[in-house]
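Bit of a strange request maybe. I'm writing a small parser for structure token strings and I need a real example to test against, not something I typed by hand. Could someone generate the tokens for this chain?
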Amino acid sequence: MAQNKFKGLGIALVTPFKSDGSVDYEALQRLLEFQLSRGADFICLLGTTAETPTLTADEKQKIRNLVVERTAGRVPLLMGCGGNCTQAVINELKSTDWTGIDGVLSVCPMYNKPSQEGLYQHFKAIAEASPVPVVLYNVPGRTGVNMTAETTLRLARDCENVVAIKEASGNITQMDDIIKNKPADFDVISGDDGITFPLITLGAVGVISVIGNALPAEFSRMVRLALRGEYDPALRIHHKFTELFKLLFVDGNPAGVKAMLSAMGMIENNLRLPLVPTRLTTMQQISAICHELGY
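Reply from user aminoacidic:
Good idea to test on real output. This should exercise your parser:
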């Protein structure tokens, strides 16, 4: 039976770009070390926040190699691999070198809007083909389809290789239903920074975080306090970040967190089309908060 290694603070790693549009591997290396030295429990590479749809196959391979090499087994690594053609995902799973990678994060198929049975059969086929444990990813705001608690629980019971779900539906009732009725060896991971605290109080085991790119020490402290049941100090940290949660997503992800990392001097504020940087007003507000936090 596969075990879920992805607990605590996971970082949805951004991809830094230079002004000429190329990947800034040096900045990525610095950013990774910054997160690992300040409390990150695992790293999620080549996910949504990485702008993965805009990366070439060669760039993805180089990023994967860099992260595996620099992490050097210090924390588990979760790598994105998903799409809306089941066979194409299976082919990628079989052709990818998974050495040093501890699990695959696979998003619900986008655009073609499968039924719940279609979602079940898609992930069942992926679980059977994957050489590493599978974390499901439900994010209906991006994919156009919500995977119900019933379908998630069916996969959790039927597929030994499916170990967790990153839940970003925003539906607390749905997430609570999964947590309440899940098998003991299946976990729920928050896919939304803003509801991580309440979700952990319900039984989630951690978060795959955007804000953790910039504030790993602060956010990992909140996560650890909440996981230990120390809810009062965890809630104070949660409330401290309430305004920032909104700012980081008002102009889309990862535009907000890249603006923050830029204000902190960590990376250049560049994205690849069709994504663009935050508006000036948002950038100014984020910079002011960074200043208040001492960055």
